[in-house]
Design goal:
Blueprint: E1 6-12, H1 19-22, E2 31-37, H2 40-50, E3 55-59, H3 60-68, E4 74-77, E5 90-92, E6 108-111, H4 117-130, E7 138-143, E8 162-170, H5 171-177, E9 182-184, H6 190-193, E10 200-201, H7 206-217, E11 224-229, H8 230-235, H9 238-258, H10 271-282, H11 295-307
Parallel strand pairs: 1-2, 1-3, 6-7, 6-9, 7-8
Antiparallel strand pairs: 3-11, 4-11, 5-9, 5-10
Helix pairs in contact: 4-11
């Protein structure tokens, strides 16, 4: 039977809510998957630059920037394996000049890439909610912990935005030396991961700050999506819906496990209580896929990215995905 199925490579991070697909418990119809689990930055680098995988997780920021520039090598799916609120991603020195978000005005702020999805939302929050125009911040781009990181997509920066690439430096080193005043990054600085208090978060109580941000705006930031190489999609357009159905089923099974108080399914105490809290905040489907349940977030993301010069056109959510996955059948 397996010989009659289309064999495709599938690169992804090791998510609990995707694992039923990568382990073969849930099989996409008509597809024999070859799962490849990779570190995020490596996976994005290899997929965007070399197209090494048939289906891969990809940065929503980089993917959308590409399609806004008519680079259509990939076909996106409205399946969002990683979503993280981003007030938690602002890092500062404990004795530095920034004590509150408003102090970012007139300061020097580093990002690992202007095109990183996390920083799109962070900058959107700074401009639209904190009230600081991005032109009133001096921006720097470098790797978080290591020198040498570069932008992966072409930018169309608005007039007045200053972005200084620093290929020979790291953001963590620049923060410690006083060359910048804050970092916006998805991947926490290594010192923070090691609980070294020389670098700290702007919001120690970030969970409460981020929940209130969602209540106020309806925005729950989407970091990543899955995409198919266009050659694969055009030869087999049914693959898109098949993958969406399988990944949605895997996610639904994962949510059921998180709500099960009979046994702890992940090594986190009170995980079922956290899942119930998420259900209270986000609704019964507390990790939604698809366009319509995520329209508020997607529209904000597309506006922010366009305003910031990452997206070269102001797109609609429907522009991100093929018609085959923009709706689903009903019985």
């Amino acid at each position: 039977m397996s010989n009659s199925r289309l064999k495709l490579s599938f690169a992804t991070s090791d998510y609990e809510h995707v694992r039923d697909v990568t382990m073969g418990t849930v099989e996409p119809e008509g597809i024999e998957l070859v799962p490849i689990t990779l570190q995020i930055e490596e996976m994005f680098y290899r997929f965007i630059n070399f197209e090494e995988f048939d289906i891969s997780e990809i940065s929503s920021g980089k993917y959308t920037s590409m399609i806004s520039q008519a680079d259509d090598r990939f076909v996106g799916l409205p399946i969002f394996p990683s979503r993280v609120a981003r007030q938690s991603s602002v890092y500062i020195l404990p004795d530095g000049p920034i004590k509150k978000a408003e102090d970012l005005r007139g300061r020097r702020v580093g990002v690992p890439e202007w095109g990183q999805s996390a920083s799109v939302y962070s900058r959107g929050w700074i401009e639209h909610d904190v009230g600081i125009p991005l032109t009133e911040i001096e921006w720097y781009q470098a790797g978080v912990n290591q020198p040498g990181r570069k932008e992966k997509v072409a930018l169309n920066l608005p007039e007045g935005i200053v972005l200084n690439p620093e290929p020979e430096k790291s953001l963590s080193g620049m923060l410690l030396s006083g060359e910048i005043d804050a970092i916006l990054t998805a991947h926490a600085p290594e010192l923070v991961e090691k609980r070294d208090k020389r670098i700290v978060r702007l919001f120690p109580n970030y969970r409460e700050v981020e929940k209130q941000y969602y209540r106020d705006t309806g925005i729950w930031p989407i970091m990543h999506l899955y995409a198919i190489r266009r050659e694969v999609f055009e030869a087999n357009p049914w693959v898109a819906q098949s993958m969406c159905k399988a990944l949605t089923e895997a996610k639904n099974r994962s949510m059921e496990r998180m709500l099960d108080i009979t046994a702890c399914r992940v090594p986190v105490g009170w995980i079922y209580d956290m899942a119930e809290e998420s259900r209270d905040l986000f609704g019964d489907d507390f990790y939604p896929y698809g366009i319509e349940p995520n329209r508020t977030t997607l529209e904000a993301f597309l506006l922010y990215g366009y305003e910031q010069g990452l997206f070269h056109k102001h797109l609609k959510p429907e522009d991100m995905f093929p018609k085959e996955v923009q709706s689903e059948f009903k019985v």
